[in-house]
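Aim 2 progress update. The chain analyzed this quarter is reproduced below.
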Amino acid sequence: MNKSKKNNYSYGSSGVDVELGRKFVEMIKPLAQRTKTAANTPELGGFGAVFDIGSCGFKDPLLIAATDGVGTKLLLAEEASAHKAVGIDLVAMCVNDLVAQGATPLFFLDYIAAGNLDISVGTQIIEGIAQGCKEAGCALIGGETAEMPGMYAPEHYDLAGFAVGAVERAAIIDGKKIEAGDQLIGLASTGFHANGFSLIRKILTSEGINLCDASSFLPGQAIGDALLKPTRIYTESILQALAKVENGIKGLAHITGGGFYENIPRTLPKQTTAIIDASSWSPPPLFKWLQRAGNLGWQEMFNTFNCGIGMVVVVEPSQMEAITATLEDNGETVFHIGEIQKSSEINQQIIIQNFETRWD
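Predicted structure tokens:
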């Protein structure tokens, strides 16, 4: 009778390269160090990251946390090798949510999961995350990289981000002071940001459009370049406006998944409605191209995408000129897009008008 021969197993034989993981951590440490602030010293590899909030100058702070991902935009980034871009996206999607409540971003952590770790790809992602953190003024204090063969295909990865910010208790932006007559201004986006890409990918596949195809709307650029442009980070400009024009900003809405219809009501009190004038800004060529390519109605566009407006700001009418000037001085393109009115309709907190002049 033959005895079965026992195999020798190791973690490496299961597809996980521990030494490669250690090498990756050493390679990205300098990237994290570039985001160092006075409140922390990034030392990747420890069990936990330390942040000294007491050194940040807050007197009565509230902590605000946000977590997000990049969604199926990652599939296009993998196809186009635009890994740094989605690293920036990851930070932007989190810190823009923080500043929508008036919070200053303090620190950021990332999570990268992959079938097999590619050090070059991972380093590009962290480069983007570090750049995003620098733009947002926060520190990259830690993260996790998980190699999970069998869970993900060899060349696929997923990202998640986590950010924490702080705001003085008396200065939090919660929308409670919004009232009829307040004005709405919109800050231009850089494109689709990191939302709606399942629909975008479906249109690309169904219409036989490749990322490398030359775009008809941006001379000299491929379609993939336009689609993968990173999410704009609004933190610095908004924080400057909050500091310079006291009590001028009453509400902020980060236009992410769900477009205008889902995100603007999140900052409005009951019995108010946002009246949006869709003719007050020109649809960016990228959005009009997708609308035509997918035969999308204007309501689908506003229900899915930011339509060229990445952040909506509710302002005190007497302060609108000063706030607009401050935002423009900090690099924003600003549009006056509507106003707040009283409403008795609980389920109708946003009305979009004059869409036919631009979007039909």
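Residues 119-136 form the longest helix (18 residues). The chain is about 35% helix and 20% strand. These observations will guide the mutagenesis experiments scheduled for the next reporting period.
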